[in-house]
Amino acid sequence: MKTNAMYYQSSFLLAEELQIIEKAKLNPAHFAPLYKKYHEAIFRYVIKRVDEEEAAYDITSCVFIKALTNIQRYEFRGVPFSSWLFRIAKSELYQSFRDNKTKRTVNIDSIQIAQLVEDFTEVYSEENKAKLLKALPLLKENQLQLIEMRFFEKRSFREMGEIIGLTENNTKVKTFRALVKLKDIFNKLK
To the nearest 10°, the Cα dihedral for 81, 84, 85, 87? Predict the structure, then answer.
């Protein structure tokens, strides 16, 4: 599985980023490098879930406003600053879904869906693809998020855990359970 280079950074790069964060804590003008480095990744994370460009820009703006206003509360935990931003983005997305400002979507391509269908059945077919597409929205939101991050975004369990606030092992267990649930729903659909 391909890893996300933004998440796996050397200790030198993490130390360099931490210096920028500490400067931003003292002066908000020093937040700009963090914004430039992570804006596109956060926007892509959001747009994959809302599929409306204007709403995605609004939510992304809220993420960075919250990050900037709460930078004093940021604690370094040995992982890139992006994990904190992704947690804020997740929270902002859920708030937007609760407020019914945006509709939840899952963006997948044919290769990703074909791989998941093949995990459930011996044969990929349009019928099985349609069945899986019907099954995905029947998962709970947290289960769908795990499936999406692991199989459609190709994130590591460690990265997923940082984003959703779980340990790596707990993330593995919950992802496995989500897959079992998805397979159960898939097999019950006609």
Answer: 160
Residue 62: partners with Cβ closer than 8 Å, 6 or more residues away: 92
Q: DSSP of 79-110, one letter per residue? A: S-HHHHHHHHHHHHHHHHHHTTSS-------H
Residue pLDDT, tens place only, 114-149: 667 667 676 677 787 788 888 888 888 889 888 888
Three-state secondary structure call for residue 26: helix
| Three-state DSSP state, 143 | helix
CA distances from 77 to 15, 145, 150 (A): 12, 23, 22
Residue 11, class by beta-carbon neighbours within 10 Å (0-12 exposed, 13-18 middle, 19+ buried)?
exposed
Distant-in-sequence, close-in-space partners of 55: CB < 8 Å, separation ≥ 6:
96, 101, 102
Instruction: Check if the beta carbon of residue 148 is closer than 8 Å to that of residue 106.
Output: yes
Percent of the residues in the chain that have a pLDDT greater than 70, as a whole number: 83
Contact indicator for 158, 119 with CB cutoff of 8 Å: no
